[in-house]
Amino acid sequence: MTERTITDYCLSKQYAVLEYPFGPEPATFKVGGKIFTVLHAKNDVIKLTLKCDPMLADLLRQQYQSVMPGYKSTHWNRVICDGSIPDDEIFHQIDNSHGLIMKSLTKKVRERLKRESHPLYLFPDPNYQPLEIRESDEYFPNGIFIFNITRLLEHIAAHRGEYKLVAVKVADHMTLPSRIPLEKCADADFHDPVMLAEISPGRYNLIDGNHRMTKAHHDGVETLQAYMLSPKQHSLFITEQKAYDAYIAYWNGKLQNLSEHKEKSPFFDLN
User: Helix or strand or coil: residue 119?
Assistant: First the structure.
């Protein structure tokens, strides 16, 4: 039994996260903000602190010399992984500890964990900084959400491998007559990809390339190259902190509504 094996197993448990609230050591594994495993690894000795029902805890202490009471608590066991306990038994004790903590969580916390475990759930990015519009910057307004297109284009140019480039049908994005006069589209270059941002789950808006799209529609061009931007990508280029925070809440609210609808209807598919 190794530190890596235990870490991987603990993180495989539902909603589990790894934190270091006490410094570099020990590693603590939590669910819903509550600890279910504490891992001490020092001088090739691995010790685990695990939640346990008092009656079962006492039986384990009687069965294994390397299982002893946790500090000042009959509800926790200290387990020394010295090879005297089968690996399956250690995994079982971790399962049991995780299960006890899960049962102790309130309904509100469990619902929050379920929402946040969705692969599309959007967390605030600690690297976000409001990108105020410079005098020469191009921007795209979408209600209170204003995107700095110039800064976004600069970032794409420096990190092209991070962005998905696909061919999109012009007709799919020209369902309404364009308000852009055709004469203003004469210099539009089809070789420059347009940008489509996933503003809400499954819904993409054209945030850059309206002139190219209009000209392509007029000239009978069927497809254009487009960057398909995920919320994590395009939200970093919102120009105000207040709007960025509102977008995070807006996206996650839309995601929750779709998930609830999917649960109610067996015919609904978020994908």
Answer: coil
Beta bridge partner(s), residue 166:
226
User: What is the strand order of the sheet 203-208 is part of?
Assistant: 164-169, 223-229, 194-200, 203-208
Residue 255 three-state SS: helix
Residue 127, exposed/middle/buried by CB under 10 A (0-12, 13-18, 19+)? exposed
Q: Which DSSP category does 44 fall into?
A: T
If asked whether residues 144 and 256 sit together in one domain, one would say yes
Residues in the chain: 271
Q: Provide the number of structural domains found in the chain.
A: 2
Q: 105 phi and psi, to 5 degrees? A: -75, 145
Q: Which of 23-32, 51-60, 172-181, 236-245 has the highest mean pLDDT?
A: 236-245
pLDDT digit string (tens) for 23-58?
888 999 999 999 999 999 888 889 999 999 988 888
Q: Does residue 270 lie in a domain region?
A: no
Structure tokens at 51: 């939640």
Q: For 186-230, where are the alpha helices, taking DSSP H only?
A: 210-219
By CB atoms closer than 10 A (0-12, 13-18, 19+), residue 60 is buried
Record the pTM: 0.70
For residue 237, the tally of other CB atoms under 10 A from its CB is 25
Give the tokens for residue 257.
């509504």
Q: Is the pLDDT of residue 271 over 60?
A: no
